[in-house]
């Protein structure tokens, strides 16, 4: 059936499919997406099957089954892996050398669901690499296939996924650790026990019950409010480290033994250091919001830092083009060459645990060397004209700017290692501000000055 361009564009975003179940997304819709995706794959003659996984949301099983029906109706086979984290689906895509579809809305509220699509080997599918074609077919109506339908099989890859991740990190010298984990009622409750099970870890679990209504807090650890329960648990239980996963468990946030958050930039620097120790001179990717500690450390250790735009499609593209061994984002997405260039919060967590286990002191001691700067975090402002406000800020700092670049929004470098970035949202009338400087006082002063212009 043909659909309006407006209804399709509201759901098929730049990087994935996402919307409110029953209003924007239903079984008929995802069945057509599945059919169109199968046509795309069949036209490329790259695979004869698609692997499908889903998270714990109430709508996920039926939607993933409808998608599978759409794929098989176009003559391709489907491998259902059932409950999975997003990086578990990426693993299956790599293991089976097959395109994949993951049903999840990540950290969005319970009313939402969506699809993350990839080609074989976990290669991303975005607007320019397939989603625009799928959108056009949904508007025109997906042509029917005249051949025989495909088949559906099931396969449990959880143990294989867990074993594969453990094999990528040297865990042979691990000392016993007490690890508190907040799964946020998301897929971490499914994957953490499988991955950590054979390790000398005393697990202190929090909200491991799979529940797509998220009864305890949003499964979005990027919001500090959603880390509070884990911070309290770490201190009360005497844990060595705390880990928090988002809804589909592809992002991981770290809390030290004091209950203090460890920035994703510091985790990026730590993992980069470990990867460079294994492969000296390697390329490390970081997005432009990541702390300057990352490129500084990479250079100090003889590596090649590569700065990129924010967003997984840009980083994965750069990973493929440069052969970079690792990449990290300020949002706690961590990408690994040996994981098909895809992101895995669980793999980053294993690196943190291995580093801590090989260190005589506490996690806060270990991370102190990666804590050179203070940062504001992302601050959003509602504006009527993002471009005009951005230019006003640039003008206000013209006499102090060391450099200005427009790789993604605008980044202004200031004296003594201070800098800020302003980026306009693609979907909302927002300007996003990130500031970094030597001290918290300097960050606060810069934020105040910039927001006075942005919100004038």
Automatic annotation (TrEMBL):
<dbReference type="InterPro" id="IPR005845">
    <property type="entry name" value="A-D-PHexomutase_a/b/a-II"/>
</dbReference>
<feature type="domain" description="Alpha-D-phosphohexomutase alpha/beta/alpha">
    <location>
        <begin position="267"/>
        <end position="373"/>
    </location>
</feature>
<dbReference type="GO" id="GO:0004615">
    <property type="term" value="F:phosphomannomutase activity"/>
</dbReference>
<feature type="domain" description="Alpha-D-phosphohexomutase alpha/beta/alpha">
    <location>
        <begin position="160"/>
        <end position="259"/>
    </location>
</feature>
<dbReference type="InterPro" id="IPR036900">
    <property type="entry name" value="A-D-PHexomutase_C_sf"/>
</dbReference>
<keyword id="KW-0460">Magnesium</keyword>
<dbReference type="Pfam" id="PF02879">
    <property type="entry name" value="PGM_PMM_II"/>
</dbReference>
<protein>
    <submittedName>
        <fullName>Phosphomannomutase/phosphoglucomutase</fullName>
        <ecNumber>5.4.2.2</ecNumber>
        <ecNumber>5.4.2.8</ecNumber>
    </submittedName>
</protein>
<dbReference type="InterPro" id="IPR005844">
    <property type="entry name" value="A-D-PHexomutase_a/b/a-I"/>
</dbReference>
<dbReference type="InterPro" id="IPR005843">
    <property type="entry name" value="A-D-PHexomutase_C"/>
</dbReference>
<dbReference type="GO" id="GO:0004614">
    <property type="term" value="F:phosphoglucomutase activity"/>
</dbReference>
<dbReference type="Pfam" id="PF02878">
    <property type="entry name" value="PGM_PMM_I"/>
</dbReference>
<dbReference type="Pfam" id="PF00408">
    <property type="entry name" value="PGM_PMM_IV"/>
</dbReference>
<dbReference type="GO" id="GO:0005975">
    <property type="term" value="P:carbohydrate metabolic process"/>
</dbReference>
<dbReference type="GO" id="GO:0046872">
    <property type="term" value="F:metal ion binding"/>
</dbReference>
<dbReference type="InterPro" id="IPR005846">
    <property type="entry name" value="A-D-PHexomutase_a/b/a-III"/>
</dbReference>
<feature type="domain" description="Alpha-D-phosphohexomutase alpha/beta/alpha">
    <location>
        <begin position="12"/>
        <end position="133"/>
    </location>
</feature>
<dbReference type="Pfam" id="PF02880">
    <property type="entry name" value="PGM_PMM_III"/>
</dbReference>
<keyword id="KW-0413">Isomerase</keyword>
<comment type="similarity">
    <text>Belongs to the phosphohexose mutase family.</text>
</comment>
<dbReference type="InterPro" id="IPR005841">
    <property type="entry name" value="Alpha-D-phosphohexomutase_SF"/>
</dbReference>
<keyword id="KW-0597">Phosphoprotein</keyword>
<keyword id="KW-0479">Metal-binding</keyword>
<dbReference type="InterPro" id="IPR016055">
    <property type="entry name" value="A-D-PHexomutase_a/b/a-I/II/III"/>
</dbReference>
<feature type="domain" description="Alpha-D-phosphohexomutase C-terminal">
    <location>
        <begin position="378"/>
        <end position="451"/>
    </location>
</feature>
